[in-house]
């Protein structure tokens, strides 16, 4: 029987007395952006020779410019978080100011307009150095002139206007050097060269250029190079250690380029490589002072896809120095969690430009890793789920260049294998799949090759596909589906049927479907992302397209009977066709990609609570004749304030009897003695107390197991409070003086949603 009210009041008194260690954390949940070097273009890099590092700043990942500072140190990128930082920007200039021992940053494109501020960086702190001087601009060229000790700036663009002025920075202010020389242009490249500065290419009103100018003695002069590279803009130009220059990438009217050229003296020559540079513009490159390697990062490729890798130029060509930190932007991809390897798997998808993908990525709870290219054909609007019978991820269907697909594939963490079940669902796209509590996979709906909505359902087991019969939800495509591990139900929401956008909620218990009747459902939508967030013990739904075909950014949680709107902070930027997947090993829910109708989104965001509820176990119980008693949270249960939290007591005697569940508020001291404390002096040899024995609760069990409920009705001030549990199982057959054994222990932290 459950504990009585007197015991609860007594426990509450102990909690009040212990509030000195409890927190007052405000409840909050939000979509925190992943702090990784995401794919971006328009970034800038400079050598920091005083600390033997490279410093990258800013860039645009497709959702807008950022203000991130990254340091290349000991062969890898590290995120730096200085207390002050320039505002977000892309297309800015960043150079090594050797005369002042600082890095110098100017201008760029901010969130709304061009910027005209000047900043310096000393390896630790960004400082605003000036707000006057050159007009605000982006796409300008900057380099350090060793002869004069000044930083030279030329050109750039402001809104639609091209600029052709030249400015000099000598440490305290900018001075104008007039408008002679290269003429108005943006996207030119510049680097120190032959005691001055060389400027190459760019784009003026007539298009991309391949001319060059040399700054020497305070003036620009045409540079008569031999065998000039083809015209381009937004390329990189790097001064190499032996006095040569390397020009790489850029863009012309046909798109990004991947060729590289080297300037030796006055002669240009193409760089022969066995592995070319993946075509890109808007990258940033410099020579690493620690290794002497020329490193290139970021940039934008075909169809606007951005790069997040760092490449190293070797004698044989370009090689990966650091792989991309996140998958390229996409929509219409699919994801599933593989608990056997603690990985969230993402496959395929498409871009707004119509480029279908066939790459496989995995999230390990910290970062992304690209695992494979190939396997299933490049496709979109397929579905993934974990196949417990094979300990692998199952893929079905989707749409590729040939139309709707009906193939079944299995991913084991290294290889995709096409399966050949004896029967299979019809080819389809936009269907939904999830793994049920028994390990089988549920598939529902979608649309056929003619985009006619489907209303059938199937189960996948070790024996293959079987049809689900009985009452089913109405036909639809792009519905959201996930498995609620607490309520042990699959939950389906919304979708699209012709011109109708649905807002109904259905649950499936493994036998039959039931139409739910929440009082305040989310607005109808399709293409939303849905997953069970175990750290919140709820289904989470976000994004999608509504009945007006407007993209949504709202977030909702399902508690088994009602939908609740969540004021996520940070909020999720509106999107549809993204993926949401709970990563159980790190206890976080990861969201990736999607589209905001203006473009594909490359961001990774983690949906987490600021005041999470936690329950973990520790220590070991002492065995009795029937085994060792075990204490744990009941499946899916966490100690949330306002909920009834259930403990699961297993390994109890087979016959009915008494248990005593103890709550304690310390795991370090009991009666002035350190914990854990041996209980042999109390007639329990081989047993230990792992906590202070502050409040006992009595309950009767029927043999074997017991679920022990405890209402957590305390107020918000208890948020973050930590307590401990252990239980004693009484049985006369136990050969000790007490006739009982002790379980392991549990530690709970009270959370607030």
Main-sheet strand order equals 51-62-61-54-59
Query: Segments where pLDDT lies below 50 for 5+ residues?
Result: 1-26
From the structure provided, what is the oligomeric state, counting identical versus distinct chains? single chain
Nearest-integer average pLDDT = 93
Count of DSSP helices? 1
Number-wise, the strands total 62
Gyration radius, rounded = 31 Å
Largest sheet: 5 strands, antiparallel
> What shape does the CA trace take?
globular
Fraction of helical residues: under 10%
The SS-based structural class is mainly beta
Q: Topology of this structure?
A:
Elements (H helix, E strand, L loop, with lengths): L4 H13 L11 E5 L10 E5 L4 E5 L11 E5 L2 E5 L12 E5 L4 E8 L4 E8 L4 E5 L10 E5 L4 E9 L2 E9 L4 E3 L12 E5 L2 E9 L2 E10 L2 E4 L13 E4 L5 E4 L2 E2 L2 E2 L3 E5 L2 E4 L13 E4 L6 E4 L12 E5 L2 E6 L11 E5 L4 E7 L7 E7 L4 E6 L9 E5 L4 E9 L2 E9 L4 E4 L12 E4 L5 E4 L12 E5 L2 E4 L12 E5 L4 E9 L2 E9 L4 E3 L13 E5 L4 E5 L12 E4 L4 E4 L12 E5 L4 E5 L11 E6 L4 E5 L11 E4 L10 E7 L6 E8 L4 E2 L2 E2 L2 E2 L9 E2 L5 E7 L3 E7 L10 E9 L9 E10 L4
Antiparallel strand pairs: 1-50, 2-3, 3-4, 4-5, 6-7, 7-8, 8-9, 10-11, 11-12, 12-13, 14-15, 15-16, 16-17, 18-19, 19-22, 20-21, 22-23, 24-25, 25-26, 26-27, 28-29, 29-30, 30-31, 32-33, 33-34, 34-35, 36-37, 37-38, 38-39, 40-41, 41-42, 42-43, 44-45, 45-46, 46-47, 48-49, 49-50, 51-62, 52-53, 53-60, ...
């Amino acid at each position: 029987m459950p504990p009585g009210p007197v015991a609860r009041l007594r426990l509450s008194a102990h909690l009040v007395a212990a509030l000195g260690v409890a927190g007052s954390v405000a409840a909050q949940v939000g979509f925190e952006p992943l702090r990784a070097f995401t794919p971006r273009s328009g970034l800038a890099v400079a050598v920091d020779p005083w600390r033997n590092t490279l410093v990258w700043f800013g860039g645009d990942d497709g959702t807008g410019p950022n203000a991130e500072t990254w340091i290349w140190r000991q062969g890898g990128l590290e995120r730096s978080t200085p207390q002050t930082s320039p505002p977000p920007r892309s297309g800015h200039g960043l150079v090594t100011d050797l005369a002042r021992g600082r890095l110098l940053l100017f201008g760029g494109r901010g969130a709304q307009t061009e910027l005209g501020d000047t900043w310096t960086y000393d390896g630790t702190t960004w400082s605003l150095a000036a707000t006057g001087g050159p007009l605000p601009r982006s796409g300008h060229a900057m380099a350090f002139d060793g002869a004069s000790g000044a930083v030279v700036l030329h050109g750039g663009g402001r809104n639609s206007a091209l600029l052709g002025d030249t400015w000099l920075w000598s440490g305290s202010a900018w001075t104008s050097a007039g408008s002679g020389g290269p003429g108005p242009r943006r996207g030119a490249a510049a680097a120190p060269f032959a005691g001055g500065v060389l400027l190459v290419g760019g784009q003026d009103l007539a298009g991309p250029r391949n001319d060059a100018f040399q700054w020497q003695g305070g003036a620009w002069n045409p540079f008569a190079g031999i065998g000039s590279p083809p015209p381009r803009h937004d390329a990189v130009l790097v001064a190499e250690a032996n006095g040569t220059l390397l020009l790489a990438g850029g863009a012309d009217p046909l798109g990004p380029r991947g060729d590289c050229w080297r300037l030796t003296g006055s002669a240009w020559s193409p760089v022969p490589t066995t592995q070319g540079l993946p075509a890109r513009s808007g990258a940033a490159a410099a020579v690493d002072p620690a290794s002497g390697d020329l490193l290139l990062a970021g940039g934008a490729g075909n169809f606007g896809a951005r790069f997040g890798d760092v490449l190293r130029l070797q004698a044989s060509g370009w090689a990966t120095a650091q792989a991309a930190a996140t998958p390229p932007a996409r929509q219409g991809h699919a994801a599933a969690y593989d608990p056997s390897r603690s990985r969230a798997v993402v496959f395929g998808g498409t871009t707004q430009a119509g480029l279908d993908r066939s790459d496989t990525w995995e999230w390990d709870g910290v970062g992304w890793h690209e695992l494979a290219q190939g396997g299933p054909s490049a496709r979109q609007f397929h579905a993934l789920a974990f196949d417990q019978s094979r300990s692998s991820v199952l893929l079905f269907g989707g749409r590729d260049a040939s139309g709707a697909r009906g193939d079944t594939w299995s991913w084991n963490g290294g290889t995709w294998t096409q399966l050949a079940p004896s029967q299979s669902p019809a080819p389809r796209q936009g269907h939904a799949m999830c793994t049920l509590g028994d390990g089988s996979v549920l598939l529902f709906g979608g649309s056929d090759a003619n985009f006619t909505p489907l209303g059938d359902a199937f189960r996948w087991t070790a024996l293959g596909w079987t049809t689900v019969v009985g009452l089913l939800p109405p036909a639809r495509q792009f519905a959201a589906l996930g498995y609620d591990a607490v309520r042990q139900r699959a939950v389906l929401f919304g979708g699209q049927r012709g011109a109708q956008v649905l807002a109904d909620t259905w649950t499936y218990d493994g036998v039959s479907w039931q139409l739910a009747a929440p009082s305040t459902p989310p607005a109808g939508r399709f293409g939303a992302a849905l997953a069970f967030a175990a750290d919140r013990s709820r289904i989470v739904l976000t994004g999608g397209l509504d009945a007006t075909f407007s993209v949504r950014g709202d977030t909702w949680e399902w508690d088994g009977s009602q939908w609740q709107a969540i004021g996520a902070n940070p909020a999720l930027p509106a999107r549809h066709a993204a993926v949401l997947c709970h990563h159980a090993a790190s206890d976080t829910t990861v969201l990736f990609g999607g589209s905001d109708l203006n473009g594909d989104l490359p961001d990774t965001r983690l949906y987490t609570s600021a005041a999470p509820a936690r329950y973990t176990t520790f220590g070991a119980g002492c065995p009795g004749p029937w085994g060792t008693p075990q204490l744990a949270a009941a499946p899916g249960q966490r100690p949330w304030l306002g909920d009834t939290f259930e403990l699961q007591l297993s390994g109890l005697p087979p016959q009915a009897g008494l248990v005593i569940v103890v709550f304690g508020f310390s795991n370090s001291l009991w009666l002035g003695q350190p914990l854990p404390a041996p209980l042999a002096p109390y007639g329990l040899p081989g047993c230990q107390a792992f906590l202070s024995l502050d409040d006992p609760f009595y309950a009767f069990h029927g043999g074997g197991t017991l679920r022990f409920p405890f209402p957590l009705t305390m107020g918000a001030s208890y948020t973050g409070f930590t307590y401990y549990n252990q239980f004693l199982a009484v049985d006369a057959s136990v050969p000790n003086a007490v006739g009982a054994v002790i379980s392991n222990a549990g530690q709970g932290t009270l959370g607030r949603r």
